[in-house]
UniProtKB/TrEMBL annotation:
GO MF entry, a single one: beta-glucosidase activity
SUPFAM superfamilies in alphabetical order: (Trans)glycosidases (SSF51445)
Domain of life: Bacteria
Active site: E166 (proton donor), E368 (nucleophile)
Residues bound to substrate: Q20, H121, N165, Y296, W414, E421, W422
Name of the protein in question: Beta-glucosidase
């Protein structure tokens, strides 16, 4: 069966982000983040909820680690809340913040689970956001300072480091379209935020190495294979543009040391990226120990303004002002978010990487993948999510089957617990474990038991 075909040593983990699970936003000296600010603004969050309690993981981390141990995962990817560790984003560390992650990491190690720590999963300290956040070049250096603090505190125990999670999403949803924090609607003027994140990534890699962390270092980029909805020149051109904006701006500089070649007609839009310093690109292209890929879905691009049949999810929103839009993909079933379920496009993602980054791609981990569904909760709180289990079976096997030219070493399921899904609030449940919003009670779903069986059957 499934477990027998999984290569020996293929790493299975679960993935989370601090802001989505921790809560305790005022505890032990944590400072506000841009998301604290954003979630308080009217109309920003689909269900009007906020993450000030979230899944209360800050107080329940022991229980959550115990659930991971029971599950049998090899590793756990979590993020370090910058505003907990360095509340204002400058100056010395907040001891209590460091101590929380000390306890978490020690608990993981005692459970035999390898910690993978992400430095930035979107919770920018509010004072830095106030000055301009990633629109400001100086933020890259502030981020490197934070990396030094984190590296010094946890570098002896963290097995893998991820600098930044999905800079794509931060630039597109946060700075271009305003559907994520900080809510800016700068459209193409947001592009420099991509460069500053990438520069922050490169400086953080150097910073972590300078303090001698023991673990490997990488980045997590999200990739979506892009297809034109119609085979005509215009639609193909828009599809290429979307591929550049969504995928290549973020991957090419890291792996190839330069931005992609921009199509002649859109060169003006990309001017800020064309004019960057060669020295910046050298910083960005630090050699990496691994490359993290988040894969959720492919993108099908149509030309013209979005119309009524556009997918009813955040990603359709996310191109609403552009001369092209995401089109539904009727031949695939969809998740709760309306995202097409298409494991063959994880294979295509790997093929894209094999072709584009031949000879320069370090070992790859799928650092996120998973699905939200409208889970039906039985009276006892249990959830029979056969759909999520089959989503994971198909995607995990696509990952370990791999493609020639890419060394895929593992898959991290998004996510351990139903949590606060950014602008969707509590409306989208992605967890292997159901969380009762009122009582915080955790109930493993069928997908959890499925994965547990798979992991136990490994030889
Ligand atoms: C990814 C994010 C993660 C979560 C999943 C569903 O883009 O990295 O925090 O929101 O999508």
């Amino acid at each position: 069966g499934f477990s027998a075909t999984m290569p020996r040593g293929f790493e299975i983990g679960v993935s989370t982000a601090a802001f989505q699970i921790e809560g305790a936003v005022r505890d032990d000296g944590r400072g506000p983040s841009t998301w604290d600010e954003f979630m308080g603004q009217p109309g920003r969050i689909a269900d009007g909820s906020n993450a000030s309690v979230a899944t209360d993981h800050y107080h329940r981390y022991r229980e959550d680690v115990a659930l991971m141990k029971e599950l049998g995962v090899d590793s756990y990817r979590f993020s370090l809340a910058w505003p907990r560790i360095q509340p204002g984003g400058v100056g010395g560390p907040n001891r209590a913040g460091i101590q929380f992650y000390d306890r978490l990491i020690d608990e993981l190690l005692a459970a035999g689970i390898k910690p993978m720590a992400t430095l930035f999963h979107w919770d920018m300290p509010e004072p830095l956001q106030h000055r301009g956040g990633w629109m400001l070049r100086d933020t890259a250096s502030r981020f490197a300072d934070f990396a030094i603090i984190a590296g010094e505190a946890f570098g002896d125990r963290v097995d893998k480091w991820v600098t930044i999670n999905e800079p794509t999403t931060v630039t597109l949803n946060g700075y271009a379209l305003g559907i994520h924090a900080p809510g800016a609607t700068l459209m193409f003027d947001s592009l420099i935020s991509a460069h500053h994140q990438l520069l922050g990534h490169g400086l953080a890699v150097q910073a972590l190495r300078s303090v001698g962390v023991k673990g490997g270092i990488g980045i997590s980029n999200v990739h979506s294979p892009v297809h034109p909805a119609k085979d005509n020149m215009k639609t193909r051109a828009y599809a290429e543009l979307f591929d550049i904006i969504h995928n290549r701006i973020f991957a090419d500089p890291v792996l190839l040391g330069h931005y992609p070649k921009f199509p002649l007609l859109s060169r003006k839009l990309f001017k800020p990226l064309i004019e960057v310093d060669a020295a910046d690109l050298r910083t960005i292209a630090q050699p990496l120990d691994f490359y993290g890929l988040n894969y959720y879905m492919p993108s099908r691009i149509g030309s013209g303004a979005p119309n009524d049949d556009a997918t009813p999810d955040g990603s359709a929103e996310s191109v609403r002002e552009l001369p092209f839009h995401l089109r539904p993909w009727p031949e695939f079933p969809t998740t709760g978010f309306g995202w097409p379920i298409a494991p063959e496009f994880l294979t295509e993602t790997l093929n894209d990487y094999a072709t584009r980054y031949e000879g320069v791609l370090p070992p790859v981990y799928i650092t996120e993948g998973g699905a939200s569904f409208d889970d039906v909760v039985a009276d006892d709180g249990s959830v029979d999510d056969a759909n999520r289990a089959s989503y994971l079976a198909d995607h995990v096997s696509a990952a370990f089957a791999g493609v020639e030219g890419v060394d895929v070493r593992g898959y991290y399921v998004w996510t351990l617990l139903d949590n606060w899904e950014w602008a969707a609030g509590f409306e989208q449940r992605f967890g292997l474990i159901h969380v009762n919003d009122q009582t915080q009670e955790r109930t493993p779903k069928r997908s959890y038991h499925w994965l547990q069986k798979v992991l136990r059957a490994r030889t």
